Amino acid sequence: MTEDVTAFSAQAVPPGDRLDLPPAQLEEIARKLRRHIISMIATAGSGHPGGSLSAADILAALYFHVMRHRPQDPHWSDRDRFILSKGHAAPVLYAALAESGYFSVEELGSLRKMGSRLQGHPDSKLTPGVEMSAGSLGMGLSFGIGVALAARLDNRSYWTYVLLSDGECEEGQTWEAALFAAHFKLDNLITMVDCNGMQLTGFTREVMNIEPLSQKWQAFGWNTIDIDGHDIKQILSAITQAKTKKGKPTIIIAHTIKGKGVSFMENNAKFHGKAPTSEEAAKALQELQ
Amino acid sequence: MTQEVSARETYGETLVKLGHENEKVVVLDADLSPSTMTHFFAQEFPQRFFDCGLEEQNMIGIAAGLAASGKIVFASSFAVFISSRCFDQARICLSQTGLDVKIIATHGGITVGEDGISHQAIEDLSLYCSLPGFTVVVPADAVETAQAIRAAAAMYGPFYVRLGRGKAPLVCPRDYQFTLGRAAVMREGRDVTIVAMGIMVAKALEAAEVLARQGVNCRVINMSTLKPLDDEMVITAASETGALVVAEEHLAQGGLGSRVAQVVAEKMPVPMSFVNLKDSYAMSGKADELLEKYGLTAAAIVQAVKSVMAKKQ
Predict the structure, then answer these.
(1) Which of A41, A139, A175, B283 has the fewest C-beta atoms under 10 angstroms from its C-beta?
(2) What ipTM was assigned to the predicted interfaces of this complex?
């Protein structure tokens, strides 16, 4: 790797319960997360860039505007919880956690290496800020339901956010969880789908069509909101709207582009689970300036 | 006649007591609460009970989320469903995280009876013993069940506890003290040791009685904690009695027999013999008929003892 590719920007955000950064700054953070994703995966030599890049705007909005959290106190009991169900997007989560101050930005360079806290897929035992171990798809919504139920039992006001992939909506467990959340009227749970339209071997509509996705969730008793998942203002406003919905869970179907921000990775199934070469990484980083 | 008590009823009653003692206790079930007996808890603590419907995978994920938020979670269903159907969830969400979830499986083994092989969990112990971090317990009777459930609640981490469907004879003495990871000597003997779990402990004691009349003194061990296994008890038995028989209501692979054999082979090799379901499923029938047909009887243990004694140096 060349120096500029592995050089991480070490600007951690100051600690605070809720950062509330304005949209313009969130866009800049999303770009920064994308640069981290490229650098981390290129350095590691393996990983999943496509589905990490597509979720960058969502995580920027959550970690730097929406969520109450304390990076210096990851187990703070009133924190909002973010649960990454699509575990292969670990790089975007690690980037958001590092930029928030859960650990140093330099540590991102250890992704997938022997002895690193940053495992190939998220490990809640190892990494500060990682709420759930993941990697086998379809489990996150169930876990999020448990977390949201606990809030209800304990009269706590924290929000639980779960990020699914659209491919994950092929897993039966996702729909078991969908039934449950609606049945128990879990309105303190906000689920988002990083709906990038692709999975490992190609376009979701060709591999295993899940459309019409909104109607499916509606039929399961959910409030649904469709947005452009790369438009920060739409993400923020959808979450605000979701919080006002009482008596049923909300799912925000964020329409995204796999590989978003890097021209040659966009809508390219090749970059679902393949690291860029150092040349590709350099080119990607240039595009993400 | 020994008194027969339902272990799952004891489980249900113990859960209610635990619910009163600790408000962190939350119970999940998958549409089987009148059978698993979690319905006692549901009646007493409706806010802390969630029927997940027929969603075993979802139930384990929810259990993990609750546990990650500070709850002590009991999740119940029939052994056959809550073992294989949600195994990946148990692997990722419980084994790999070490979260505080107690899987209490009822209707284990072939003694579930008439429902047939789809409902007879005979590979569940192999599955859960394979998961790092899990504690696996099969109580011998209702007395031990009550204590094992309490021990599970008191110790942080994932558990798999298997209970049977029917009433079973009480084999543990009144002053019995269950300790996790410790086997109990139910009968002293120097000629051979029978290691058993669950309902086979009663059969082992019956076999030992028969053998005593023939001049063979059997030690009988109740190995209710399969994982972590009481290695020391196994090594001592192998060394002092020179031969072991392992009896379990489970397939030959991966259960108590395999686990004991691993210790014996490594630490104190002696002749062994096994009483189990070998490598096949059973069929519909009454529990006693099935035990008879598939050789999970005192007579089968007697035979196994004789064969292993013949191999003793």
Answers:
(1) B283
(2) 0.96
